[in-house]
Amino acid sequence: MSARDLNRLERLLGGILLAGVALSATALIAGLLLMAMGSPGAGFALTTGLVLLMCIPAARILASFGDAVVRRDGLLAAATAFVSLVLLWQFLKTLQ
Fold this sequence. Notes:
- By secondary structure, the protein is mainly α.
- It has helices at 3-36, 42-71, 74-95.
- It has one domain.
């Protein structure tokens, strides 16, 4: 992996982290404000914020997979695909 590729991947992953945390924090703050006002939508906003926060690692793994495919890095693509499948399997198990 060249320094240029690494910088691009770091920017991509950093952007995902920043966007995910910002969206999650916004939803959590909105939920807390709604809760303080006694609104029935508070639970939904808080749940949304927590779900967004939990999705950040999966989004980073998927972005790494996409980057590995674009760069034709078979080993990293296979590893991240495996991790993605394990995450998907665990998610589907929780729905049962």
